[in-house]
Amino acid sequence: GQNIDQPTEMTATEGAIVQINCTYQTSGFNGLFWYQQHAGEAPTFLSYNVLDGLEEKGRFSSFLSRSKGYSYLLLKELQMKDSASYLCAVQNSGNTPLVFGKGTRLSVIA
Amino acid sequence: SAVISQKPSRDICQRGTSLTIQCQVDSQVTMMFWYRQQPGQSLTLIATANQGSEATYESGFVIDKFPISRPNLTFSTLTVSNMSPEDSSIYLCSVSVDTDTQYFGPGTRLTVL
Fold this sequence. Notes:
The complex is a heterodimer of chains A (110) and B (113). By secondary structure, chain A is mainly beta. Chain A has strands spanning 3-5, 9-13, 18-25, 31-37, 44-49, 53-57, 60-65, 70-75, 84-91, 98-100, 104-109. Chain A contains no helices and eleven strands. The termini of chain A are far apart. The model of chain A has no long low-confidence stretch (mean pLDDT 94). Chain B has 113 residues and is an all-beta fold. In chain B, the strands form two sheets. In chain B, strands 2, 4, 5, 6, 9, 10 and 11 form a seven-stranded mixed sheet that branches. In chain B, strands 1-3-8-7 form a four-stranded antiparallel sheet, with no helix packed on it. The A-B interface holds A 30-31, 33, 35, 40-45, 48, 50, 87, 89, 91, 94-103 and B 30-31, 33, 35, 41-45, 48, 92, 94, 96, 99-107, 109.
């Protein structure tokens, strides 16, 4: 079966760092994606990891451990506009659709 | 990247009617997918739209309810047939540009009364 778990909600303070975890058990693995989705909008691509390690892109970083079936999204210097849902998704094989977790709703407070 | 547009952006429909949603991409793409996102939920794959052949549907979704067309590499339609209030959702078109990036259209917000 396919199972992708992430926390339902998180709250963090403006200017702080927050880590959103994702664990997965899927039938195959061709990469892990993170998307940001603001309320009422479509998901926006943030990152893609296929090899173990950390990928850094500005204030956002994403980490992958394939042996542990684990990823996290790290957001630094949080801003109010980072309040959104963050979706973890796994691709089982090349050019196939993604399997999504339920998403983590992040609230950034002053 | 790919620029994806969807029409309509939103609609309010009566029970028992059908709505066709269009997805247009600004470049030829190999893979196109249709997802549904029910209120407060994550994304669920409906089907993969195959160019020139029948779509591949996920468990729980059938062609009679969600017919899909893909006449070429830049365009696809999804029809929601014989609608009921349970079909109220956001419907999203997604494309795969290369193996490490999938982009989403802006979505169609459907409300069924």
